[in-house]
Specification:
Blueprint (H helix, E strand, L loop, with lengths): L2 H33 L4 H11 L3 H4 L1 H13 L1 H10 L1 H20 L6 H31 L19 H25 L3 H12 L1 H4 L1 H13 L5 H22 L3 H23 L2 E3 L9 E2 L7 H28 L18 H5 L1
Antiparallel strand pairs: 1-2
Helix pairs in contact: 1-2, 1-4, 1-7, 1-8, 1-13, 4-5, 6-7, 7-8, 8-9, 8-11, 8-13, 9-12, 11-13, 12-13
């Protein structure tokens, strides 16, 4: 058994889990800006909690996609060509959300700010749902033929597993963001986030639990490792919920993040060695063995990753440490007009 394809399957799983854990609270905060408050100050507090880190968190998505392309080109080609509709929606959502974050404070009218608040929220919802649908389908199966080509129309992907995967990531993002805001915000935002984490977060995690169990039973009952991850995920969720009820925000964050870590770990462990099961015929399944790139390419990738990954992790950890303090309402300045430098020069 060649070890490098297995190493890169684990590496890609780690990259996707890292993306869900880090970008998860970003997306959740974006969605919560729509429904959790109408106060402009509270919305600015929420936006400032993710302001320094949201774009860095998206690097994990790009890196996961690039690693899939380089390590398992057949997996990347089949998945991205079959799911071009939801992935196009994902791209649109990422763009709308990024523009909203950058442009929301450029014009000081209520209509302008409300418009971009909705764009940030809807963009975050679209990204969370479509990413969850894509991951749900790669873990449960798509109608692909012997060449890895889609069998059926462009919306053949819109199935029950896709909906469950989409709702799972949306629900996890909402739960994860409630404990994140409990740690990073103060005032009314912190209070509402704590109430949500204690009352509604467990309900938000139900679709993710259904997804994890679906993968186990659709792939021969799973493995000892995958079931061990499921047990750890349940324990972590229960721990996070109890900590949230006691308003112990740090432990609540760790508990719900642990649910995401072990739950996603259970899904990847349950589907191994499959990368993309075919719902047409099991003989068309893409696996770690028949979809991997050559040993030379994987060897070069391993060396590059061993050198660059620690640097990236240290830089991101440093940025979180620098912006570790809570964002309080007192830190938010009054709304004022800031002229662009080009206009000030005239």
């Amino acid at each position: 058994m060649e070890p490098l394809p297995v190493v890169w399957f684990i590496a890609i799983a780690v990259l996707w889990i890292g993306y869900l854990l880090l970008e998860g609270f970003d997306l959740g905060v974006g969605m919560r800006m729509i429904f959790s408050t109408r106060s402009e100050q509270d919305r600015r507090v929420m936006l400032n909690t993710i302001g320094p880190v949201w774009d860095g968190n998206e690097v994990w998505l790009i890196t996961a996609g690039a690693a899939m392309f380089a390590a398992f080109p057949a997996w990347y080609a089949s998945l991205f060509s079959t799911l071009y509709v939801p992935l196009t929606f994902t791209l649109v959502g990422l763009i709308v959300r990024a523009v909203g974050i950058e442009y929301r404070g450029k014009v000081h009218t209520v209509r302008w700010r409300d418009f971009w608040t909705w764009m940030i929220g809807l963009g975050s919802l679209i990204v969370a749902f479509c990413i969850g649908a894509a991951l749900g389908l790669t873990s449960t199966g798509l109608p692909i033929d012997a060449n890895g080509d889609r069998v059926g129309g462009p919306f053949v992907w819109l199935t029950l597993p896709a909906v469950i995967g989409g709702l799972a990531v949306v629900g996890f993002a909402l739960a994860h963001s409630s404990t994140f805001l409990g740690l990073k915000a103060d005032g009314p935002v912190r209070e509402r986030a704590g109430q949500f984490a204690a009352r509604w977060a467990p309900l938000c995690l139900v679709p993710a639990a259904v997804w994890a169990l679906w993968v186990q039973f659709s792939h021969g009952g799973g493995s000892v490792l995958s079931w061990a991850f499921i047990v750890l995920a349940v324990v972590a969720a229960l721990f996070g919920w109890l900590a949230a009820r006691r308003r112990n925000e740090g432990w609540a964050f760790i508990g719900y993040a642990g649910f995401g870590l072990f739950g996603a770990g259970a899904i990847f462990a349950g589907m191994f060695p499959l990368l993309l099961p075919s719902t047409v015929d099991a003989a068309f399944d893409l696996t770690v063995w028949n979809a991997a790139n050559g040993s030379y390419t994987l060897g070069v990738m391993t060396i590059v990753a061993a050198v660059s990954l620690p640097v990236i992790l240290l830089y991101q950890a440093w940025s979180y440490w620098i912006f570790r303090k809570r964002v309080t309402p007192g830190m938010i300045p009054e709304v004022h007009i800031v002229l662009p430098a080009v206009l000030r020069a005239n």
